[in-house]
Amino acid sequence: GAGVSQTPSNKVTEKGKYVELRCDPISGHTALYWYRQSLGQGPEFLIYFQGTGAADDSGLPNDRFFAVRPEGSVSTLKIQRTERGDSAVYLCASSETPGVEDTQYFGPGTRLTVL
Amino acid sequence: KQEVTQIPAALSVPEGENLVLNCSFTDSAIYNLQWFRQDPGKGLTSLLLIQSSQREQTSGRLNASLDKSSGRSTLYIAASQPGDSATYLCAVRDSSASKIIFGSGTRLSIRP
């Protein structure tokens, strides 16, 4: 595709529910990143994939958060037992090859609201 | 632990002025530094990326400098225009080329 896409654009759920957020990176980009952004703050790093594997998941806040990228392209961020504090905009970015061409291209984000 | 700070948090200037946005980071062992622009309700757009071995990068009216030893970067915007109004974020990639840490951004408003 022309850019990074994320679905859904908005997600409203109730406390305790499970949600999945999807990211489609730019075709051919090997690196994929997830961030979350709260109002008035910069994006907070969650996890970085190089290919199919998580190269760095140190930003995941707790074990309710999990992300996969089984075929090295599309990624899904999964949040179990959602809490009101999980409400934020979840951003995905991809880059061609870290260390060679590292410019990140961001998607428009998924706004998650936990009631 | 790497921390990234951007000062000022907000800035309002009249159209046509040259301006400088500041970014500082606590750990000088970085892989690269990137400046982004974010418009309200939108994702981020990359403006400039500076590798750790570089001192500056230029694109049009934008110039970004990097002083790794002092933990500082500046984004210089020449001849500002109302269309430059946005939030500007800097982000550093750690030396292991994995985690990326963002500052909180500078909200820039250019008055016509």
Topology readout:
The complex is a heterodimer of chains A (115) and B (112).
Chain A: E1 5-7, E2 10-13, E3 19-24, E4 31-37, E5 44-50, E6 53-56, E7 65-68, E8 75-79, E9 88-95, E10 105-106, E11 110-114
Parallel strand pairs in A: 2-11
Antiparallel strand pairs in A: 1-3, 3-8, 4-5, 4-9, 5-6, 7-8, 9-10, 9-11
Chain B: E1 4-7, E2 10-14, E3 19-25, E4 30-38, E5 44-51, E6 56-59, E7 62-67, E8 72-77, E9 86-94, E10 100-102, E11 106-111
Parallel strand pairs in B: 2-11
Antiparallel strand pairs in B: 1-3, 3-8, 4-5, 4-9, 6-7, 7-8, 9-10, 9-11
Word description of this protein:
The complex is a heterodimer of chains A (115) and B (112). With 115 residues, chain A is mainly beta. Chain A contains no helices and eleven strands. Chain A has strands spanning 5-7, 10-13, 19-24, 31-37, 44-50, 53-56, 65-68, 75-79, 88-95, 105-106, 110-114. In chain A, strands 2, 4, 5, 6, 9, 10 and 11 form a seven-stranded mixed β-sheet that branches. Chain A has a four-stranded antiparallel β-sheet with strand order 1-3-8-7, with no helix packed on it. Chain A is globular, with a radius of gyration of 13 Å. Chain B has 112 residues and is an all-beta fold. In chain B, 0% of the residues lie in helices and 60% in strands. In chain B, the strands form two sheets. In chain B, strands 2, 4, 5, 9, 10 and 11 form a six-stranded mixed β-sheet that branches. The N and C termini of chain B lie far apart (41 Å). The mean pLDDT of chain B is 94.
Key structural traits:
heterodimer; A: 115 residues; mainly beta; 0% helix; B: 112 residues; six-stranded mixed beta sheet; five-stranded antiparallel beta sheet; 60% strand
Question: Strand-and-helix sequence of chain B, N→C?
Answer: EEEEEEEEEEE
Q: Provide the low-confidence segments of chain B as ranges.
A: none
Secondary-structure element pattern of chain A, one letter each: EEEEEEEEEEE
Number of strands of chain A: 11
Assembly state here?
Answer: heterodimer
Strand portion of chain B, in percent?
over 45%
Gyration radius over CA of chain B: 13 Å
> So how many helices of chain A?
0
Largest sheet of chain A: 7 strands, mixed
Number of strands of chain B: 11
* Unreliable segments of 5+ consecutive residues of chain A: none
Separate helix tally of chain B: 0
Instruction: Specify the biggest β-sheet of chain B.
Output: 6 strands, mixed
